[in-house]
Amino acid sequence: MHISWPPVILSLLLLAISFKSTTSAPDPSHRKCRCLPNDPCWPSAQTWSSFNQSVNGHLISLRPIGAVCHGHEFNEAECALAQQNTYNAQWRASQPGALQSTNWESRSQTLLDCDLNSPREAPCTQGRIPVYTVLAESAEEIQTAVRFARDQNLRVVIRNTGHNALGQSSGPGSLQINTSRLKRIEPVPDFIPQGIGASVGQAATLGAGVLALEVAQVGLDQGFTSIMGLCNTVGSVGGFIQGGGVSLLGPLYGMGSDNAVEFNVVTAEGDLVVANAFQNADLFWALRGGGGGTFGIVVNTTIRVFGDVPGIAFSLYAQISRQDPRYPDSVKAIFDITRQIVGIFPALRRADDATSGYVTPDITLNSTTVQVLSEILFPNTTNIDSIRQRLRPLMAALDDLGFSPVYTTTLTAFPGLSTFFNLTRLIPATGRLEGSVMVSERLLLSRNGPSRILDVTLGHAYVNGDQLEFFMSAGGQVKKNKGVIDSGLNPAWREAGMLVSLRRILPTSSATKRFANSLLPALRRIETPRLGSYINAADPDEPGFQRAFWGSNYERLYQIKQKWDRDGLFVVNSGVGSEDWGAEQICRVR
């Protein structure tokens, strides 16, 4: 779907939409609910046209990416391009009418409202895709869009790359404010936050639209590393940092949110403010872990970066055909490999608390294979023989399983971690549901901890498309920052050692209900009392989400939300203050 439409086309689109409104401001009686396209208070075509001029022609009428494959909008070449890129995360990130979790494009969350691969005559409805987007190229355009949405009483959706497990990047009948064009990358040798004369050291100011792969490339060129997620197409400083920021570098440098030192943010009043430890400190506190899309629209963020250090990475990949007679239970086979890798995590952590790693057993949707992928990162070392010695028990255990024909391992020394983080890691775009739980470092390092974790998670019947992830991403510096970093981040992260996540590829039918009713509750039983969940890998129906995502910090976050956004312009699924709103955050319920 092309988004660089000429202004005349946009004007025709605007005029082609039939709206009843003849006034530019909504009736106050509608303020309890947001104005939707069929409401009398919806802005007129002329109002939208004037607004487009005020944002320098960057207002675009949105349709789902599948629209070019249906009805009068059919375009053979555009449809073929969209179908070719259906699972391409980088392409989807560039399309404001697309998401990475495709089920959130639809109002049903299981069946697409505008399926790329359904017959041309099949209907294509808008689903949860916003009606318009502002492809903002400056803070001023974001300010203008926020003021327009506030004055017109519109539902606002903030989108960068479309990576979001909770559907927070879409919403029916909404105005999307898109930050993907804000690509500033400015390394600063000695950054001094506004309002204080002391440097916080090496940093980089990143626009809200900068992807992990983009900052990784600059880091490679200039010799630094920064906290980033596993997937290259995740934004570096949007919902990733505002949601906490889990990373392979967490045990070495702390959470992503720990390393944010300043935000430039547009508030619900349309003001551009600086938030750091010395100005608007409460907003700064909330933005570091309080969740994305909730307290304002971040234009850019300055984060600590770190001089490049060497490291060694271990990787394992195994793929087993379900028809392979040597492995009649192929799922059990990859789970056996998983057990050995998770089983060695405690010893690796005790040897060096900066060590991180993950293992992901995957029961692929294609039903012909199962696979498992693992990476373990050993930072600040060049001694490959020492690392090989640490891994010897794992390699012996894998040999004892007799799986050597189906898995491969590598041990690679990197002169700088920036090289490691420039390796391609993409998560294919699909429909998916997921959920996660933190596991305490106390349990992980206990004598029977790994067995407890694995027995609870692996002892279930999984279906095609299910994927587990055991991510040793906390502990180390994350734990050491307890009492040092004061932020909106769930305090439970300071006690965590691992994040366990479960994903299910959609569409499914009754299996989806079992995922929510059986498998996700099983995750929550790993440890009692449980620490909580990670909002960036969360169950959309997480019970008691306030405590699960933010623990004892929730009350203060809610108070800050009321101060900075009393009218709830920025409200997202399972975000701070969302309990005050009904379905799709359209009408207030309290």
Automatic annotation (TrEMBL):
It comes from Emericella nidulans (strain FGSC A4 / ATCC 38163 / CBS 112.46 / NRRL 194 / M139) (Aspergillus nidulans). Pfam families: BBE (PF08031), FAD_binding_4 (PF01565). The lineage of its organism: Eukaryota, Fungi, Dikarya, Ascomycota, Pezizomycotina. This is Isoamyl alcohol oxidase, putative (AFU_orthologue AFUA_4G00430). The keyword Coiled coil does not apply. Residues 1-24 form the signal peptide. InterPro entries: BBE, FAD-bd_PCMH, FAD-bd_PCMH-like_sf, FAD-bd_PCMH_sub2, FAD-linked_Oxidoreductase, Oxid_FAD_bind_N. Keywords: FAD, Flavoprotein, Oxidoreductase, Signal. Gene3D superfamilies: 3.30.465.10. One of its GO terms (molecular function) is FAD binding.
